[in-house]
Amino acid sequence: MEYINLGNSGLRVPKYILGTIPFSGTNGFEPAGNINENDARRMVDISLEAGINMFDTANLYSKGDAERVLGAAIKGRRDEVLLTSKTGFHLGENPNARGASRSNIEASIDRTLERLGTDHLDLYFVHLWDGRTPVEETVETMTNLVRSGKIRYWGVSNYSGWALARTYSVAEQSGYIPPITQQIYYTPEAREAEYELLPAGSELGIGSMIWSPLGEGLLNGKIGRNKTAPENTRQGGGWPEPWVYDQERLYRVIDALEEVAANHDATVPQIAYTWVKDRPNVGPIVIAARNEEQLQENIASFDIQLTKEEHDRIESVARPAPFYPLWHRAMGSFEMGSPSEMPYLEGYKKSMGMED
What we know:
alpha/beta, eight-stranded parallel β-sheet, two-stranded antiparallel ribbon, 12 helices, 11% strand
């Protein structure tokens, strides 16, 4: 397993991180999986054997039960693992038990630490943008958690480009500790992060950690033009996400993944993971599995090497449209793009028929 520095920090993390949304499967998360403590312990064993020592969870997942299951699975080996969690979604009747306020963050971290059976997190995320709480309040609170020892680093998730930049700037200019990573949604079909989030993260020194590279089950190999999602999966079990704005575009992506998978005697999920991990400006990616077999299969994708032609075949079928000001920049000031932007600007030029 490859290890990389997470953003502009000294924290070394594996390129693959195990996500725990399938852990427990209670409180509305039944379609995501039902991994119990014994199975979770085995998944931690398999992950550690493969060099994956980071585990991602959230107080949202099964409303705290996923944290409890993960805590039981790592009991007795806390010093071998890196733990992340998140807060921000509204989980109860208390109007202050939500968002990025000091009130919610300080209450959430203590409950999370108790459920995980640890005295600190290696990484703590604000799970969503809170436009009703001053950014200064959020960054001061997270800075205080770092200084108190309850967390080592912090990050944000599901922010827009301007919200990411403002959060970083407020922290840096005010003498607080900036976030070192953002966790964002990015798949071979959902490429919106290329517009601002991926290059912004690179420019700011904020690592881009990818959640659900399989599109919350859309790219699990069981969905296609003539294939309907099985009932025992998220997409077949009434899961509301993600939003897909063009179903035909999704099928073209699946077609390309199936074509490349056949070249490697691999599965669609394996090729999707491989493609995402090799994209520009992408840091670690969060993989997940419902059972040991899936986990072994997903880990094995790390060793797959795509040819440039295969990578480009997948890239071309879902390339984002060059919305303003990107078409203007690609046409009139292409050579002034920063290194983090150039791969995407080149794609926009191709979309406009301006290949060199």
